[in-house]
């Protein structure tokens, strides 16, 4: 019984640490913040980590995005080297894969932020 308790405590602490890290304001942005950045920052790079098929699906895509599916991102980081000094907004369908993508980029020295809610949230917020 004690081993199960210890195991559960370890799992819980890992979960809480990860959840807190995902909410660090330095590494996240809302859809409203993304849209404002798109209007004000001509150097903003938007990385969509969904599959190519998803880009032509019902949620569509943002014009000018770079598409590297999350499954391939770690092996294709060299494609983002020209943008290493730029702000990168990472987006996916709902914000789960883009959380992982943001972590990969930040760990490799990029200035990346996860778009909370992803394309689902993006499509709900209308441009002014």
Strand residue content: 5-15%
What's the domain count? Answer: 1
Q: Give the tally of β-strands.
A: 5
Strand line-up of the largest beta sheet? 1-5-4-2-3
**Subunit arrangement of the protein:** single chain
- Round the mean pLDDT to the nearest integer and report it: 87
Structural class: alpha/beta
Would you state the CATH class?
Answer: Alpha Beta
Main sheet specs: 5 strands, parallel
Number of helices: 6
CATH fold-level label: Oxidized Rhodanese, domain 1
Report the CATH architecture.
Answer: 3-Layer(aba) Sandwich
**Uncertain ranges:** 15-21
Shape: globular
How much helix, percentage-wise, in residues? 40-55%
Radius of gyration: 16 Å
SSE pattern, N- to C-terminal: HEHEHEHEHEH
CATH superfamily: Rhodanese-like domain
N-C termini distance = 57 Å
How is the secondary structure organized here?
Blueprint: H1 2-22, E1 28-29, H2 31-40, E2 45-48, H3 52-55, E3 66-67, H4 70-73, E4 87-91, H5 96-107, E5 111-115, H6 118-124
Structure in words:
The protein is an alpha/beta fold. The protein has a single domain (26-124), classed as Rhodanese-like domain (Oxidized Rhodanese, domain 1), CATH 3.40.250.10. The protein is 45% helix and 14% strand. It is built from six helices and five strands, in the order H-E-H-E-H-E-H-E-H-E-H. Strand 4 (87-91), helix 5 and strand 5 form a beta-alpha-beta unit. It starts with a helix and ends with a helix.
């Amino acid at each position: 019984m004690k081993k199960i308790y210890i195991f559960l405590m370890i799992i819980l602490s890992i979960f809480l640490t990860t959840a807190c890290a995902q909410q660090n304001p330095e590494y996240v942005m809302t859809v409203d913040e993304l849209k404002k950045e798109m209007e004000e920052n001509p150097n903003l790079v938007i990385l969509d980590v969904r599959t190519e098929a998803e880009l032509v699906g019902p949620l569509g895509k943002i014009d000018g995005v770079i598409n590297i599916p999350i499954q391939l991102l770690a092996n294709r980081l060299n494609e983002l080297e020209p943008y290493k000094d730029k702000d990168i907004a990472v987006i996916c369908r709902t914000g789960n894969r883009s959380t992982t993508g943001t972590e990969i980029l930040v760990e490799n020295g990029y200035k990346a932020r996860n778009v909370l809610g992803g394309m689902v949230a993006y499509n709900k917020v209308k441009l002014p």
